[in-house]
Amino acid sequence: MGDNIENPGVYSLREAMKIADSLDLDLVEISPKADPPVCKATDFSKFLYQQKKKQKEIKAKTVKVVVKEIRFGPQTDDHDFNFKLRHAEKFLQEGAKVKAYVFFKGRSILFKEQGEILLLKFATSLEDYGKVEQLPKLEGKRMTMFISPKKKS
Fold this sequence. Notes:
Radius of gyration: 29 Å
Strand content: 25-35%
CATH class of the largest domain: Alpha Beta
Oligomer: single chain
Number of helices: 4
Order of helices and strands: HEEHEHEHEE
CATH topology of the largest domain: Translation Initiation Factor IF3
């Protein structure tokens, strides 16, 4: 029934309402799906405040996933590749996911094998920092691959 009730138990609705009124409190339904429904004699505004506080704590504990994008061309040079590789390593160490993609412009779509080789080379270079979540997949003019960070042990 309530925090300040000596004998919690099963009461009829009228009895529970009388008890709550006598204590100048509200009768708040805690668990409506229980049989019988569970109610508590408490201050309703205090109850709402506690609910909001719990929701805020739950929200604060949730992990926010950050996705960083790295773009390649089908004929990306070794220097550019290594530069982007170092950035991806940093992103994965920070706990962010990496979305690497090769963008094909115009007729460069003819080199989709080169794009796939480039992404697979990228994935093998990052094996120490992350694991491939999605293998290279062609969607329109983009070949995309996702790499998620390895769990820290």
